[in-house]
């Protein structure tokens, strides 16, 4: 059993949070962009 926490546990956790956050932000942006394009097409009568 380890006595103390190692720095790599924190580093890996920070990287995981960063990657997950980035992927969520990209997904949210893509969904918002698709919604905006649908609204634009609806207004233009396409």
TrEMBL record:
Annotated transmembrane regions: 12-34
Protein name: O-antigen ligase
Keywords, ordered alphabetically: Ligase, Membrane, Transmembrane, Transmembrane helix
Keyword Transmembrane: yes
Lineage of source species: Bacteria, Pseudomonadati, Pseudomonadota, Alphaproteobacteria, Sphingomonadales
GO molecular function, one term: ligase activity
UniProt key word Ligase: yes
Origin species: Novosphingobium hassiacum
